[in-house]
Amino acid sequence: VIDYKNGAWQEPHILPYGPIEMSPAMAAIHYGQALFEGMKAYKTQEGEVVLFRPQDNWARLNKSAVRLCMPEIPEELFMEGLKKLIALDADWVPQRPGYSLYIRPVMFGSEGLLGVRPATEYKFIVFCSPASSYYAEPVRVKIEEQYTRAVEGGFGFAKAAGNYGGSLLPAQQAHAEGYHQIIWTDGREHNYVEESGTMNVMFVIDGTLVTPALSTSILAGITRDSVLQLARDWGMPVEERRIKVQEIVDAYQAGKLQDAFGTGTAATIAHIKSITFRGEEMMLPPVAERTFSNKISAELDNIRYGLAPDPHGWVVPVK
Ligand code: PMP
Fold it and tell me: Coiled coil where (predicted)?
């Protein structure tokens, strides 16, 4: 726990997991000054505990903070706090392929106030939980045309709690209809693919890796960026641009939709089994035939568990 008051971040404290005190007038629960991050620590075959691209989570946290009028946190404080917490007990990072320690940094306005203005007091808290991958099987997704997750000029690019609150109802409805996830479309015409509930989305169309370009309404996923960098390293054609839902339908009908998957820290690489658009379910090829997503999934795991070279310096040891 690190408190922010009198215009400065205070000394970090490590406390047993448990309830915290809060004011009923706390800014976070009235005016939505709440954001978080999601990251993972892995244990390599040699028993070394490593983080995956933690500086990118730090940078994204601060970008979100700026958008919500919250104080930025210095890199040393973020990194030192994280490393001290994880190093407390090396045994709580599982040493099994596919398993990791999920780390949840969260920051919120803790000052009790009534007028609508940014808080002057904040809390930054990090807690952890051992985890496996989110989805055990390929996911069925539906293109969402009724609800909107985020709009241009809004704060969809921030990992703000409010983005998730608004996503719960559409996700719940999709679950009731038998889907694991929805694919959000743009807030204007619902014509363009945005992202999924907890993942960015990618498609392989006729040999090219295609994903929606970043904008103010899409979360800049760190897994997304890692996949794009590796694909470019391998000489694969990569396009980051706007993608019409109709383009996916056309590619499917022409037999050119070779792969579709979600990318995220919790979900890692989640194969998409089928995409339903206006009641028509488009079935993707069997997972065994997905050359790209299988290869990228294995390579990312190998880098994280220290089984493959790490050319981009993504893996940071916790000492
Ligand atoms: N989009 C949303 C809405 C998410 O919650 C996440 C998970 N953080 C992602 C995309 C993927 O981001 P990352 O790869 O950094 O986990």
Answer: none
Q: Helix, strand, coil % (nearest 5) of the chain?
A: 25, 30, 40
Instruction: Give the residue, by CA position, lying nearest to ligand 1 atom 9.
Output: 199
| 314 φ/ψ angles, rounded to the nearest 5 degrees | -80, -25
Q: Would you state the structure tokens that stand for residue 31, as one six-digit string?
A: 């005016």
Atom 5 of ligand 1, nearest CA residue: 198
User: Identity (one letter) of the amino acid at 303?
Assistant: I
pLDDT tens across 192-223, in order?
A: 999 998 999 999 999 999 999 999 999 999 99
CATH of 2-131, one of 3.40.50.300, 3.10.50.30, 3.30.470.10, 3.90.660.10: 3.30.470.10
Q: Which atom of ligand 1 is nearest to the CA of 149?
A: 3
- Structure tokens, 168: 């719960």
Ligand 1 geometric centre to CA of 156 (Å) = 11
Where do the domains of the chain lie? 2-131, 139-304
Q: How confident is the model at residue 266 (pLDDT cuts 50, 70, 90)?
A: confident
Alpha helix stretches (DSSP H) within the chain: 27-31, 54-67, 75-87, 161-165, 168-176, 222-233, 245-253, 291-304
- Retrieve residue 142's tokens: 């539906």
Rounded to 5 degrees, what are φ and ψ at 164?
Answer: -85, -35
Output the pLDDT for position 134: 67
Distance 265 CA to ligand 1 centre (A): 7
Instruction: Indicate the fold that domain 139-304 takes in CATH.
Output: D-amino Acid Aminotransferase; Chain A, domain 2 (3.20.10)
The predicted model scores a pTM of 0.97
Dist. CA 132 → ligand 1 center (Å): 16
**By the 8 A CB rule, do 227 and 300 touch?**
yes
Q: What is the ipTM of this complex?
A: 0.99
What are the φ/ψ torsions at residue 149 (nearest 5 degrees)?
Answer: -80, -45
